[in-house]
Structure formats: C-alpha cells, structure tokens
Design goal:
Elements (H helix, E strand, L loop, with lengths): L13 H9 L1 H15 L7 H13 L4 H16 L6 H17 L13 E6 L6 H14 L4 E4 L6 H14 L2 E3 L7 H14 L4 E4 L8 H18 L6 E7 L5 H13 L3 E5 L9 H9 L3 E5 L7 E3 L2 H9 L2
Parallel strand pairs: 1-4, 1-5, 2-3, 2-4, 5-6, 6-7
Antiparallel strand pairs: 7-8
Helix pairs in contact: 1-12, 2-3, 3-4, 4-5, 4-11, 5-11, 5-12, 6-7, 8-9, 10-11
The structure holds guanosine-5'-diphosphate and magnesium ion.
The site of magnesium ion has 5 residues, from helix 6.
C-alpha cells in the first residue's frame, strides 16, 4: 500500500481484507453480542440494549464512551422510534464512527517542510517498527525521508532503525549509544533543513532509569527540536500497544500531560480482542488516531479510517 490516505471507495480491496483479518480477534469478541442483530433476529427492546452495552464493555470500549454510543439508541428504542435490527445496527455504527472521527486532523506534507515527526511511547509499543514502515511507504511515494536514531539508551535500538533505513535506502542520523538524544534530534532536524527533506522521523527511548527521567528527556528533545526549527516537531505521536487494553488510556494521559501530543498510533490490533479500546481512547483523549498496526508486515500499518474500521469490526 503506497498511498498515505486509503481509497475509501474500495472497501473490498486488499487494504480492507487485511484490516478485517487484523481485527479478527476483536471482531469475534463483538460478534457474539451482535450476531442476532446482524442476522436480523434480535427483538428490539431494553434487553437488546443491555446486551449491546455488555458487548461494548467487554471489547474495552469503556463506560463513558459506551454510554455515549448508546445514549440516543436508548431513547429511540424506548420511544419506539427505532424498531428494526437494521436501524439499531446503523445507528450503532454511526455513533462509533462519530466517536472515532471527532478528532480527525490528517498529517499533511503541504504545510511544513521538513515535516518533523517525533515518535514517543513505552518500550516495545512499536515506535521503531512504525517509523520504519512509514519511512518505507513515504520513500516509495517519492518523499525525501530522513530518520533519527533518538533511542540512544540501547545500541540495539540504533541498529534496528539503521536496518530499516538501509532497506528503504534512506539516511539515518545517529550517534553512539549513550549519546544525548536531543543532540541526535538536533543534528537530524538541521540536516533535514539543509538537505531539503520532506519529512524527518525521530525515534526515542521508551525506558530509562525512571519514568520521570524519560519524560524529562523527551521534553528536552522536543524543546531542542523547536530551537532548530520553530514550530517543530509538527507531530508528536504516541505509539500505543493495543494488547495492553484499558491501560493504554492512563498511559496516553501521562504522555499527553508531559508531551502535549498531537496524535496517536495504535499497533498490534491483530494481537488482541480488546480493539474496542480505540473507541475509548478517542472518546477520552480527544486526539486523532493517525495509523493502526494490524500485523507485522509493512502494509499492515494502515492510515486510520473510522468508517472502514467500524465496517471491518461489525460487518458480517
Ligand atoms: N503483530 C504485530 N506486531 C507488531 C506491530 N507493530 C509492531 N510490532 C512488533 O512489536 C515489537 C516491538 O516493536 P518496536 O518497534 O521494536 O517497539 P519500540 O520499542 O517501541 O521501538 C516488534 O517485534 C514488532 O515487530 C503490529 O501492528 N502487529
Ligand atoms: Mg525502538
């Protein structure tokens, strides 16, 4: 998949098939609760709504967001405005799409050159992999891409990013392990300006001696980037591992407080039945979700599209 934005008018494309199979575990967990509605066999009434509520909660959609999704449906069913299974399903989907769409703010290359993206998140969340996949995609689209190995905490982290860079035939700015990550970021942004790059992707560490140290270091990286290029980083993205379920909410809040995030990436949706947590996150954090990971391959990192996501979760 070379394009940044997905073709919305091709829901049965390879993109959609990958999305659907990547969401299989969450689909299955929702399917039990939705089966009768999807098949048109449910009796529309308060019991059905309770069942729906339970289904959403089990998928980690969260109390508040579940309440929001079912709010109007409850009224409409109570007042007999909604009588058919299909109407229930359509309204359910519509509200889910609404929750996921409310913060949309696409990443564009037009406004900033170089576009500076700072990737943060805890160890193992998928930062380096996500950077590698995005770099590969954007390079294939003809963009001039530069990487920065800002996770200087471990030598292996620098090597890992360099492997991605070599594979995509792009440059990676790095220093030896133990170096100051803000110095790496400084060099990278300066180089990106000098070399007329379209985008620079900056990797960071996810673990230090303490969380406090980590946040202070990340804040410094952000400050230093802004000194080289006022207004940068243009996107500070938090990468979250979907398999941690509800814990991603508190994690995202912590990072948001420290880093003033611009958006989210959620990886490993293929490894969990708790994919509904994405609705919970959107509802609570009010931040755009830009990319989702639904598998290990490069094309399994997809631009997030609320309508396709909901369709892939719920369609028969
Ligand atoms: N199944 C699956 N694995 C993923 C996904 N994204 C990342 N991973 C894996 O998660 C592991 C940690 O990723 P990494 O990028 O090194 O995390 P980092 O510590 O945040 O840089 C690697 O083995 C990746 O291949 C995804 O969407 N699905
Ligand atoms: Mg890493």
């Amino acid at each position: 998949m070379e394009e940044t934005e997905q073709p919305e008018d091709e829901p049965k494309s390879g993109f959609f098939a990958r999305l659907k199979s990547g969401l299989q575990k969450t689909r299955s967990s929702l399917a039990g609760g939705l089966e009768n509605i999807v098949q048109g066999k449910a009796k529309v009434g308060p019991e059905l709504l309770e069942e729906l509520e339970e289904t959403l909660l089990i998928a980690d959609v969260g109390m508040e967001t579940t309440a929001f999704i079912l709010e109007d449906l409850k009224k409409d069913v109570a007042q007999n405005r909604i009588r058919s299974n299909d109407e229930v399903l359509q309204q359910l989907k519509g509200r889910m799409i609404e929750v996921l769409s409310q913060n949309i703010n696409p990443i564009t290359f037009a406004k900033n050159k170089p576009l500076v993206i700072l990737m943060v998140g805890i160890n193992g969340s998928g930062k380096t992999t996500t950077i590698g996949k995005l770099a590969q995609r954007w390079k294939q689209e003809g963009k001039k891409v530069l990487l920065a190995a800002g996770d200087t905490f471990r030598a292996a982290a620098i090597d890992q990013l360099q492997v991605w860079a070599e594979r995509a035939d792009i440059n990676c700015i790095s220093q030896k392990s133990g170096a100051d990550p803000s110095a790496v970021a400084y060099d990278a942004v300066q180089a990106a300006v000098a070399r007329d790059m379209d985008v620079v992707l900056i990797d960071t560490a996810g673990r230090l001696q303490t969380n406090q140290n980590l946040m202070e270091e990340l804040k410094k990286v952000k400050r230093v980037i802004g000194k080289v290029l006022p207004g940068a980083p243009h996107e500070t993205l938090l990468v979250l591992d979907a398999t941690i379920g509800q814990n991603s909410i508190s994690q995202a809040k912590l990072f948001h407080e420290a880093m003033e995030l611009d958006g989210l990436v959620m990886t490993k949706l293929d490894g969990t039945a708790k994919g509904g947590v994405l609705l919970n996150l959107s509802g609570e954090l009010k931040l755009p979700v830009h990319f989702i990971g639904v598998g290990e391959k490069a094309e399994d990192l997809q631009a997030f599209d609320p309508e396709n996501f909901v369709e892939a979760l719920i369609s028969g």
